[in-house]
Give the backbone structure.
Amino acid sequence: MKPARPTDFHKRARAALLARFEQFKNPPGSPTRTRRRHRVLKFLWRQRLHAVRPIVPDGHVLPLDEALKGVETHRSAGVESVTWLGHAAFLMRIGGKTVLIDPFLSDYASPVHGVGPRRFTPPGLPVEHLPPIDVLIVSHNHYDHLDARTIQALPDKGRIQVIVPLGLRRFFKARGFTHVTEMAWHDRTRIDGLNVTCVPAIHRSARTLIDRNRTLWAGFILEDRKSRIYFGGDTGYGAVFQETGERYGPFDLALIGIGCYAPRAAMHMNHADPEEAVQIAVDLKARHVMAMHWGTIIMTEEPPFEPPRRFRIAAAGAGFSPEQAWLMRVGETRALPSGAIGAMQHAA
């Protein structure tokens, strides 16, 4: 007897099973691991176990009342804006939407409260002080970007449009969100006057010991008729940024991580250092660059306030003026720059 031929149902089931256990990979030409994994894990554990809370410079964090005033002043004036909530978390007003990005707003970047990297600065806006959110974007599933406590605390889950890389729909559906869009690199979606494009990043993903690279990581482009903004998520440096700049640039503002880079043997394939972050902005053809992913939690061995000093020097050397190279205070709001040529024509 001949075996039965697989039906469309069986083909779809097999494809779904394979996708569940697929390991995503970085773009061709990305840096590769040069340090053994067990040594990296030992280093990270030692750093997190013995991390000392640093002395925070005056002015690094805005008082809550000033942060709230800044958000409201720009909103009431109808000005498109970005607010740094600390680390890689942002509140953005663009395309008539209020967008929340990578909202790590709780105390620990960890699955267990009281264990793991602890923030040494408060979030720019606690969850209870956030305005109503229209769009939620998450770049990947690491705990300092996909914070389950913050996600669970968000109200109006049935109204928020969630945009995530491949593999993360289930996480948000399980927590009550009904409108979830998964995206592969170069996918594009439109929500009224806001266009969102998923673009490659050089990183990895995992939330447990058995799900390494089972979900995708990404950067995102947000654009409307006024501005084109790049959000880098977590990324190392590679040739893919020149390709992104040629395909999608120029950008009015690039939000790029500058911290979590030492030791380089362990971190070069996951996080850019400040000089590489500036080079990413150059490759993207960005008119302004903002430093993020620093000044909030200690995850690696560089001094916590070394990244902004190196960023200033590198940005000046690349031709960015102080007005073009942004080092914002936690909780600070600034107007989005505009002027990228043909933003909506490019996004159409």
